[in-house]
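Predict the 3D structure for this chain.
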Amino acid sequence: MTLQPSLFDLPIAPRNPLPEGFRYQAGLVTPQEERDLVARLETLAFAPYEHLGYLGNRRVAAFGWRRGEDGTMVETGEGVPDFLQPLLAKVAAFTGLAIESFRHALVTEYAAGAGIGWHRDRPPAVAIAGVSLLSPCTFRLRRKSGEAWERASITAEPRSAYLMSGPSRSAWQHSIPPVEALRYSVTFRTVARP
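Done. Predicted structure below.
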């Protein structure tokens, strides 16, 4: 009998740990809740994503805030719609943040082949929580470290949630490469009050 464990018995540490302030939870919603949500999302009046004249390869529906012509976020006065409130309650419980601190909701429809390039959400967003629906995606993060990039990634499975706060929101960029199948993302942002 040997006391030395086999290489295959040892736990595998992540090659690139996720940044400080990033959290992930699988199974935030049930399959039935996902089906019900998607049925409602399919009825939304999606518009092509546009930023400073650039059209993204995804469609969005925003609530609570919108992007102004100069690219800054402008409060609309409308709240998160009622049908998203149960999801928002689950997101608030997962994050530990007050439900009323989430003042912006963005529903994004990624058709097969759509993704989102490297970016960092800017103020007024303080913390960002997202829920992935229908199909998985690779959620990539990076930050400049000297002459190189420090990188991390996680597979956001259907019905899962993530939180970006602290350094993961302010110091790291994130992106999603083209998805293989239709995916919806529901993103909630906390916004500091003026």
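The radius of gyration is 18 Å.
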